[in-house]
Write a structure and sequence with these properties.
The protein contains two helices and eight strands. It has 137 residues and is of the alpha/beta class.
Length: 137
């Protein structure tokens, strides 16, 4: 079994996934637009360049997403986070700073009783992240 996260975006899914691939590593393996799908003739022209399905993979994990259209109103994520677990504190710093850039820091990256580094940020695309670099148990 594998659990994956599927995110909804407010028209900036492609920009978000490019940002993640640039700053987190990994690669975008799918980026399908509504205008290229089987329902393109029934899709409003303003949605043709929006993302119907995106898939980004890094270290055996997948993050997927779509742009909301007029059929489904965008609502920001509440009370849920995408969690990144790292083993290197310097990399945790770099990743956290890249995610927080242009977004909002909810908890600065810092040492905690369980982690060398832990912090929470909502990125510029509205996605809440927890960056965690645990201490050895």
């Amino acid at each position: 079994m594998q659990l994956n996260t599927y995110l909804n975006f407010n028209g900036d899914c492609e920009a978000a996934f490019n940002h993640y691939a640039t700053h987190l590593g990994g690669k975008i393996v799918a980026l399908m637009k509504f205008g290229d799908g089987p329902m393109a003739s029934r899709t409003p022209a303003q949605a043709h360049d929006k993302i119907m399905h995106a898939r980004y993979e890094v270290d055996g994990c997948a993050l997927m997403g779509t742009d909301c259209t007029a059929d489904g109103e965008y609502q920001p994520i509440k009370c849920a986070y995408v969690v990144i677990n790292l083993t290197d504190a310097d990399k945790a710093e770099r990743v956290f700073n890249a995610l927080a850039d242009g977004g909002k820091v909810e908890m600065p990256l810092q040492q905690t009783f369980w982690a060398h580094r832990y912090g929470i940020a909502v990125d510029r695309f509205g996605v809440p992240w927890m960056v965690n670099c645990e201490k050895a148990s």
